[in-house]
């Protein structure tokens, strides 16, 4: 009698990425989709709508500059909402003096990286935050 093979189901963690750059969205998907469920929204308004539909990502990656609703306002709304207060956030930006800007924010950001970013460094940050 042949033994049945049982494949182990591995639960992938989910990441919400909020970034208006089409090329960067493709890059995020390319480097992360094999390890995580990736949802990409092009602006904070669409991301908030997705979250309000009951979605609960394990991690949020947000660009600082986005159309309609910038990353600072988006993350501040999340942190003030209470429900996503403990969801880890990585802030990405191509702005100068990003570390200084992050220190002046009225809310906690778990990690930040400057664009262009190293994909391996991003994956390492993600692993450290949601392992």
Number of domains: 1
CATH architectural group: 3-Layer(aba) Sandwich
> What are the low-pLDDT stretches, counting only 5+ consecutive residues below 50?
none
**What spatial order of strands do you see in the largest sheet?**
2-1-3-4-5
Specify the structural class: alpha/beta
- What is the CATH superfamily label? Response regulator
Tell me the span between the first and last alpha carbons: 40 Å
* β-strand number: 5
Q: What is the overall number of helices?
A: 5
What's the mean pLDDT score?
86
Largest beta-sheet characterization: 5 strands, parallel
The fraction of residues in strands falls at: 15-25%
Assign the CATH class: Alpha Beta
Which bin fits the share of residues in helices? 25-40%
N-to-C SSE string, H for helix and E for strand? EHEHEHEHEH
What is the alpha-carbon Rg in Å? Answer: 16 Å
The rough form would be described as globular
Please name the CATH topology: Rossmann fold
Structure description:
With 131 residues, this protein is α/β, with parallel strands linked by helices. The protein has one domain (13-130): Response regulator (Rossmann fold, 3-Layer(aba) Sandwich). The protein is 37% helix and 20% strand. The protein is built from 5 helices and 5 strands. It has helices spanning 22-32, 44-52, 71-81, 98-103, 119-130; strands spanning 13-18, 36-41, 59-63, 89-93, 111-114. Strands 2-1-3-4-5 form a 5-stranded parallel sheet, with helices on both faces. Helix 4 (98-103) links the parallel strand 4 (89-93) and strand 5 (111-114). The longest helix is centred in the last third of the chain and has 12 residues, at 119-130. The chain is globular.
């Amino acid at each position: 009698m042949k033994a049945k093979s049982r494949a182990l189901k591995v639960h992938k963690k989910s990441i919400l990425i909020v970034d208006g750059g089409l090329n960067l969205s493709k890059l995020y998907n390319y480097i992360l989709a094999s390890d995580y469920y990736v949802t990409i929204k092009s602006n904070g308004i669409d991301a908030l709508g997705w979250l309000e539909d009951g979605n609960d990502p394990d991690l949020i990656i947000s660009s600082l500059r986005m159309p309609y609703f910038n990353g600072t306002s988006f993350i501040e709304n999340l942190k003030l909402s209470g429900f996503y207060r403990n969801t880890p956030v990585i802030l990405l930006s191509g702005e100068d003096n990003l570390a200084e800007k992050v220190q002046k924010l009225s809310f906690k950001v778990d990690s930040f990286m400057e664009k262009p970013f190293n994909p391996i460094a991003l994956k390492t940050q993600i692993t450290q935050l949601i392992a």
